[in-house]
Amino acid sequence: MYIDWQLSDVCNFKCTYCNLASMGGVEGWPTLEQAKGLVDNILSHSDHDYRTYNLLGGEPTLWKHFGELCTYIHNEDESHVIQVLTNGSRTKRWWQTYAPTMDKIIISHHVATTKDRSPEHTIMVAETCHPNSNVSIQILMDIDNFDECATHFNVMLARLPGIRITPKKGETNLGSGEWMPYSPEQLAWFDDALVRAKANEQRISPIHKAIGNKPIDRRFFASDGVTEWHTSNKDLIINDANHFEGWNCNIGLDMIAVKPSGQIRPSSSCFKNVTLGNYRTSSTINWPKAPFVCNQASCFCGADIEVEKHAPK
Prior knowledge:
Blueprint: E1 2-6, H1 20-23, H2 32-45, E2 51-56, H3 66-76, E3 80-86, H4 92-98, E4 104-109, H5 120-129, E5 134-140, H6 146-159, E6 164-168, H7 184-201, E7 210-211, E8 214-215, E9 220-223, E10 228-231, H8 233-238, E11 248-249, E12 255-258, E13 263-265, E14 277-278, E15 292-293, H9 302-305, E16 309-310
Parallel strand pairs: 1-2, 1-12, 2-3, 3-4, 4-5, 5-6, 9-16
Antiparallel strand pairs: 7-8, 9-10, 11-15, 11-16, 12-13, 13-14
Helix pairs in contact: 2-3
């Protein structure tokens, strides 16, 4: 099961392509007891082999109880994967203290707002965390700073062997579903960069979290009724293969999305009118019983793409 948990809309970055839902600072933080209560509710419901808690914001590491929540999940859910989506802005000492409680750390690198417009801080965080956690880096390819982003990508490839470093297409505004208007040359750069990124991953075997003897595989699974395949959500998006309208999707069954207000939905980016509960105001969650039929022309959210899907028979 995948829990896409946006703890807050508080962030210390002000990226021009972001939206207020991720940096508005309106909702503040939950109490630690509210957050623990949601974990308990999930554990009482879920019989999945394992549960991935994808903790994000805003910037989730700013919350004073963030380390305590990670420790609680670690102690209470023996089949957990704690995945943190962060801008990596905290200090080396902070990461040395708390990274050991995290199984996967995804650093979202934003050239225009990162420290000194340099890749050095992100490289330091990756090197600090990688001995204990599976670390990856996503570089948001801001069209207004594309060449600078490409330079950071090249520096990281040279300095961080074995770490997944992915150039990420940007939306004009986060959640809009409209890509930045990249030129043909920039789109060709993406294709080449993906090849080089995959080669870099083979230089040193990355660290993997395992449940028993089973490695965690968060690659996308899909079936059209004839063929089944695994790939990554970013490969699908870059190759314009993220179209599943009319398919049966296991959102609500194999994932939930938790919003900064505490609202719980079956999906991170679609079926926004469907609410399953609110963990800040109630302990009741109305868990779905059947898959949802996709009603979107394209799927842009990495978490939603990775949910199991089947073409209608």
